[in-house]
């Protein structure tokens, strides 16, 4: 056999390579059996995480825990093949960014209510939700930098070129869509959002007089949204398979130290969540409500969110708690609750992508200056509107933020962290729900529609 | 304060920068108040033009009328910020080019009548309209070169590379859409037109037998057209704001000499209009009608067009004059009048973009050879079909022509001229209406449907 | 007259150039008259081929059969102008690739039947059809290389850079659509297919519960498909005109040796067809049927296919023969017959594009290694799904394969061969029909639904 050819083309030169490819296929088969036996998605995710961890450790063990796993040829080969599964999954996630953002922004704007009070209600709810989203993004950025996430895993040769500071004016103009098709082709998320916003706005205006003329477009937007959402769901369903490959790939390729990095990420995320949670409570205090009393009353939805990892599933409990225990007007509670399950998710759509962007920038030696941070916050906040109500919204939020920062090519590096998603998701979801409830209280307060009696009742 | 950081990032190092930014905001506020008080759009445009002129002069005054305003740092900073408003507006205009051309060309073709005589009528009207459009484009190019428009304002370093002459055959093939999506992404206007024409043509053919199958597409095209037209209207409404920033930016950045350039442009435009007008009259003479008699009879719609700056608003008077005074058959007058208010506008869609393209080419040191001119005429004529019946069609025509010539990146340089649009619009509109009337007379003559009695009546 | 200008811009410096341009126009006029007199398309194609051949020979004759026709300036000029017609036609073909593939793949998936047995029937039919397509593609590649097609006509300077072997893993990942819009702009056929497949799959799933929501999208897909098919038909109708220019251009520019190349291509194609035909018979033998008996029974549809060059036109005879003479169950015969007239055409969609890709690669000095071949087979097989049921499907298949291989820019070089399409089409169509019949027999056998009595009857 011609070894050079094999190593260059098929990337299999060693019996170990074949063995580990077969092992991976066997594990994926196991995951598939779980899926057929209708094991819950979250259980499958946890099993996959453990399987990936073990697989990576076995590879390290067989290789004798080398200092530089990247120098061992067969590990590189195994990783190429594992990467095909894992990174291919990441490519599919990226594929959805442009059509998803485009269609869902149009849809969000068309469906905004225009009634008198409803208008005020919407504006106030949005402002507060996006405000807390901004805060959460900032916290994520700060904590990510304090932890120096990703620095030790700098896998891309740092380019020596010093990036010049881009003036904020130029950055802002770069976000404008001077050609919508090229904006889409380049994955310029903000430009796509602006173009979509113009379309949505015009459709909203035309809907009064010319609803019959634009109806085909409206129907198309709704239909496309349904389809893209469904594609997203299909792709997300592949996550348990990808997780095995991604985690094994990470540990095999970067050594046991990779585990340390991932653990650091978990700690950084949970620390950020705690900080934003405290900020939430401070807001509650500013609204004239005892934060401890508030905390005691909302314990139930928070625990449910933490364990179920579903904002939407928790929604009925959230609304009931807000109405019966906190005393928020039922209309407001329902409205803000529904809105907040979709838009401005503090955990999933702000802290998480912020931490991830910082990690990737460190990994790749990307210079982070004020224009980087400003841009990141803008993209996260705008993005938090666009990923409304999607399955796997946290992973989507990361995909959008990374693409929007022009780091789409580095996205696969996030694989190691994407792989441990369930552990991260618990805290994130809890924070989402709390953000929604704080917003509901603030909006209720602003309309003077909080029932003191219920609030003070034990 | 770290001045380097501020100058590099926020571009504010001087109290004067802040002062002038605040001054601009104040002026824009004033423009907004006019808008809220429902001041007429044209009045707002004139006020904005004057305000921008004064603002630019004040900046020059404060800087002591420097020889090279570009060397004064705070003027550069002010201009960056002013440019964000002004050039941002130009970006939004450019954004509309591809979707607009694509959808409207399909729509124009679908809606073409296919009746027997109506077919002949359409073809003849189109040929004459596009013929006069071509003449007007040529006149614009010649006059623009005689005036050396933009030469003194050469703002872009002339690249020394001598552009080779592109054979006409290669130019023609470059216009073909070998991939419609990349043609759209690159803003290749003619390729988009050709692709759209294929679609429109096929839809027209299928409409006979399979109208139910393609109805969703037809409806979508109509709906999208409505939406894009509405977006164009939204963007055009921002023009008074942009005008202030653009004119102030131009004068501040290029000194008082910029005013001279703009005035030269105005003179060149009006000279071109007069020349084409004379050509119109010569055509009338060739048709066997005394041009002076014709002129006397059509004075009313011409004056109305000049003062109202609206071809469409003038249309009823145009048709009435053509029928009652010139003796053109009422059906032909109505048909050509409606067509000519949309297609082949001699002033807005031919002279104006031609002058602008020449100006921009001179400004940027772009070599203009015969392939440049040939291409420009083709794009202007084709473009004059695509911008049919749009608000702000003259500005759109410039946007289309500049993008089509691959000079889209230079489009913002046109800001100084875009800013004085109202002055230009009066002459352009008058010429549009006269072109329509000449076409109506020629078509009427060709069908032998001109009432000599009415024509000779005083 | 300024000769330099003329030669550089208009490419006319010689009386001969003008004469041959006029001659071409005259011939095209003649072709147009045939079209108006409703001469059959195939007759027009043959006449055009002969006309192009003669025109090319006359040019060679006038030039005195030079060794290097490329050194004669007036031949170059004539060829530039002839190329505008011929290669312009090729550009229009390329234009259709992306929208066609995108829409038709979605449509194919939506329309797949999901019934129990129907599902099995579909899967088995598809597998066998695509299996024979793969075999045919491999045969085409092997024969093309044995004949060294295109090597002698190496028209593009061979670039000395040695292309590195791309690992198969990287090739596979490169096929994934990480941004659908840029995939379309780059003409990445496989990525477009994958994205379309995700859309089609989701629409199929949603169709059960949410058919009303996605109906606008379904209708749009069907309408667009109708329109694109109609555009394809419009473009294909131009083929007789293009053929004259392409063949004359080929012979004029490459000398009489070009005829030799084209003849070699014809021989290679028919040899490949014979080889695949023998493989078909071997499959029949493996299915337990005497291949000679089979051959005698299916002679009628094969001859009809060869002379009529229409798989679809032959379909009724194909089904009747399968049912009455070979004894295949009528349902299966109808189903596979219909499917096979559209999908997995062995001749048109496999051998032909394979040979063409090898020829172009040789012509342009493109290195062909295992990743090239692997990729080519994948693209041909996937493409054979996407060009389903189109007019001029063989030419389309070539267009898709060449674009997919990233050799879209070289496509025009195929002109000389495209020009003799009718001669190639006879064998290709015959093989398509035989492939369909073999599939029907295999599927019938697998369901044990072949009537032995009918089969053994004489």
Automatic annotation (TrEMBL), chains A, B, C:
Signal peptide per UniProt: none
Cellular localization per UniProt: Membrane
Keyword Cell wall biogenesis/degradation included in the entry's annotation: no
Keyword tags: Membrane, Transmembrane, Transmembrane helix, Transport
Chain ranges passing through the membrane: 12-33, 45-65, 85-106, 126-147, 187-206, 227-247, 267-289, 370-390, 396-420
UniProt superkingdom: Bacteria
Principal place of residence: membrane
InterPro entries membership: Na-dicarboxylate_symporter, Na:dicarbo_symporter_sf
Membrane topology qualifier: Multi-pass membrane protein
Family note: Belongs to the dicarboxylate/amino acid:cation symporter (DAACS) (TC 2.A.23) family.
Listed name of the protein: L-cystine uptake protein TcyP
Source species of the chain: Clostridium saudiense
